[in-house]
Design a protein that fits this description.
0% strand; mainly alpha; rod-shaped; 168 residues; 2 helices
Length: 168
């Protein structure tokens, strides 16, 4: 029946044998290098992926480190700014306190000067009143008093004037 179709069985067996021999030769000489080459390429691709993942991981770590540094620097800057504000507030408060102290001292000195001038004016007024009283007494008595008598009269008049309200 195979011959009726024009197929030679010997040729088919020969072709199958050739095919199996070719397959054995290819398997022996080509298949192993081909598989080794495929395995090598597979390993290269896996290594490249692994390296890329490692690079990404390092990049992420560096990014996190930089972000932490930036956050730390921002906190430090905020602390420095806050500290500077506190110092400025203290200095402003100190300047105001110093100015208030100086103003109080100036006021105190002015009050002392006013009191001194008031006392000097009262003393001068007493002396003038004393001299006027002496002059009036001299005219009334029409005699000149000696220094001791004049001093006694002045003191007496001043005491009477002080008792009468000449103090203030």
């Amino acid at each position: 029946m195979v011959e009726a179709l024009g197929i030679d069985l010997k040729e088919i067996i020969f072709a199958i044998a050739n095919f199996l021999i070719l397959l054995a030769v290819l398997a022996k000489f080509m298949y192993k290098p081909f598989l080794a080459n495929l395995e090598r390429r597979k390993q290269m691709i896996e290594d490249a992926i692994s390296n890329a993942e490692a690079v990404n991981k390092r990049a992420d770590e560096k990014m996190n480190s930089y972000n932490k540094r930036i956050a730390g620097a921002e906190r430090e800057a905020a602390g420095i700014i806050n500290e500077a504000k506190i110092k400025a507030d203290k200095q402003a408060s100190q300047i105001i306190d110093d100015a208030n102290e100086k103003a109080a001292l100036i006021m105190q000195k002015a009050e002392q000067e006013i009191e001194r001038q008031k006392d000097a004016a009262i003393t001068e007024a007493r002396e003038q009143i004393g001299m006027l009283a002496v002059m009036a007494a001299e005219k009334i008595i029409e005699k000149e008093l000696d220094d001791v008598g004049q001093t006694q009269i002045i003191d007496s008049i001043l005491d009477e004037a002080g008792a009468a309200g000449w103090q203030n």
